[in-house]
Task: inverse folding
């Protein structure tokens, strides 16, 4: 299966909620995923199989809810190429 690259932004929402307590835990899930990743100021980029990327997206949304968000908006951009992609390819 070809590698895909996905950039995503997790936006937890809830009444009187401080997202600073949630987002570090979301980043920990990404770091523990085993997927190659880069955390940036506006989004996180990961590379992996489509199934692994979608599994990670499910996990980060669930963690945000477990940490107190009443809802989570996740913006996702995916780049697929049959030959596969790497984060380094996008930096050239």
Result:
């Amino acid at each position: 299966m070809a590698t895909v690259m996905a950039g995503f932004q997790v936006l937890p929402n809830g009444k009187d909620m401080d997202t600073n307590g949630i987002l570090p835990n979301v980043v920990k899930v990404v770091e523990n995923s085993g997927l190659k990743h880069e955390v940036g100021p506006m989004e996180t980029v990961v590379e992996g199989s489509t199934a692994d990327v979608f599994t990670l997206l499910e996990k980060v949304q669930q963690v945000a809810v477990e940490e107190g968000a009443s809802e989570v908006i996740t913006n996702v951009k995916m780049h697929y190429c049959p030959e596969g992609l790497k984060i380094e390819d996008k930096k050239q």
Observations:
- The mean pLDDT is 89.
- The longest strand covers residues 4-13.
- The beta strands are 4-13, 36-39, 44-48, 71-80.
